[in-house]
Every structure is written in C-alpha cells, then in structure tokens.
Amino acid sequence: MKQGAWWVALLMVSSLCQAATDADPLLDGATSTASEVRGVLRARSQAVLASELAGRVVDIPYAEGQTFNKGDVLVRFDCSAYQAQQNAANAAARAAREELRNKQQLAALNSVGRFEVALAEARQAQSQAEAQVYQVQVQRCQIKAPFDGQVVTRKVQAHESVASGTPLLEIVDNRSLEVHLLVPSRWLGKLKPEQTFSFVPDETGKPLDAVVKRLGARIDEGSQTLLLIGTLPANSSGLLAGMSGTAHFAEQP
C-alpha cells in the first residue's frame, strides 16, 4: 500500500508540473527546440502627441493609416486669442523700447538720473519676456510631426475643445522597426552583439535576417528571461509594428 501511494503521489506531482508548464504564456510561446523563441516587432520612433495648451481643434488633416513627413502640421488649433495676446505684448515691448531710448537721451543731457534709466531697462526686459511667452503659445497652436510616419489613432476630432495635456494623435514610424525577444537568461554568456539570427513574422511567413543589437538591463526573476533587441535590414518592407513571429538561431546559445 505504501508503494502504491508513493506512485500515485508521483503521478500527481508530474501532472501538476505539466499543467503549470502548459498554463505559462512565456513557456507556451517557446518552440520545441531551445534555439527558437517568440518575439514581436516594435517601432523605434512612436509617440502619443498631446496638447500643450487648452483650445479648440480646428483641423486634423491626417486620418488613420495616412503617411506624413517630418515637419508636416498634424494638428491645428484656433489661435485667435493667443495671437491677440502676442500682438498686445509686442506693442508693449515696442513702447518699452521707446521709453528706454528716451530715458537714455535725457540721461545724456543730465535731465534724468541713472535710477530712471535702470527702471526703463527693467520694464523693457519684462515686456520682451512677456512677448516671448505669447510667441511660444502661438507656436503651440500647431503640432508638427517629429518624424516621418503614419497615424495610428486619432483620439480627438476637428471642432472639439480640449484641455492642456489631452492626447490627440498616436503616430508610428514603421520604417524603423526592431525585433524584441524574450530569451532564456542562461543564454546571456553566449549571446554577442552583431550575432545574426532569422525572424519569421506570422503574418508574412517570410524569413528576415536580423542582427543582435543590444540586451536588456535586467533579468526577469519570475520567468528567468532576458530582453534581446535585434535590428532588421534597411530594405525590409511590408512590416508593421506589433507583428509577432519566431526567431531562429543557427546554433543553440
């Protein structure tokens, strides 16, 4: 009886271990050979553009999936109020300059003291600083593309009023993709920069020649995996950020 109970307990432990392995998404992503791991394509240049001021959106010229170039205007705000404030600040700055010039001329004739000239200089500096603040606000009425790319999602529509910090657009550059892999931590001593491997996206089925670019800064304690980032050939086309696939290493690290 004791020997039979021992065999039953052993079978139960084996079944529990197998169930834990099947339920682990990290282990489930691994293939039958230790030299293959799952990965995903991610863009080096991607961003969620947010509003730097409160105002009404006048125009969002690019829709989801459309391409744009660096420097193109992606979002335009109603800037009439900010433009009026800038005009008033510029007028005040011109008045302060004229006042300073007049005080300097009077000081040359000993008609005013140095103190009044210093006050005029301070008022001119203050007015110029205020004019620069309004100039920055006017510049923020247009959000320009920081890089070449495509629109992923428009989070607001034209004619909507938004608060400062509201997300407006999510953009991505699919021409600057990297391969992100989670490899076993025991590979750490074997992996080298510029080491080559093959990556096959599930969506295309076409092998891509990738190169190890860099490794992550820490090992995940729970899964005992390490982040590996690889680069793709410059002429790779038909790829999108978020594609997943399998990386094949010629030799088991």
TrEMBL record:
Position of the signal peptide: 1-19
InterPro entries in the cross-refs: MdtA-like_BSH (IPR058625), RND_pump_MFP (IPR006143)
Residue ranges the record marks as coiled coil: none
Domain Multidrug resistance protein MdtA-like barrel-sandwich hybrid: 49-172
Signal recorded as keyword: yes
Keywords linked to the UniProt accession: Coiled coil, Signal
Gene3D superfamilies, sorted: 2.40.30.170, 2.40.50.100, Helix hairpin bin
Domain of life of the native organism: Bacteria
Keyword Signal: yes
Record-stated family: Belongs to the membrane fusion protein (MFP) (TC 8.A.1) family.
NCBIfam families on file: RND_mfp (TIGR01730)
Official protein name in the record: Efflux RND transporter periplasmic adaptor subunit
Protein source organism: Pseudomonas fontis
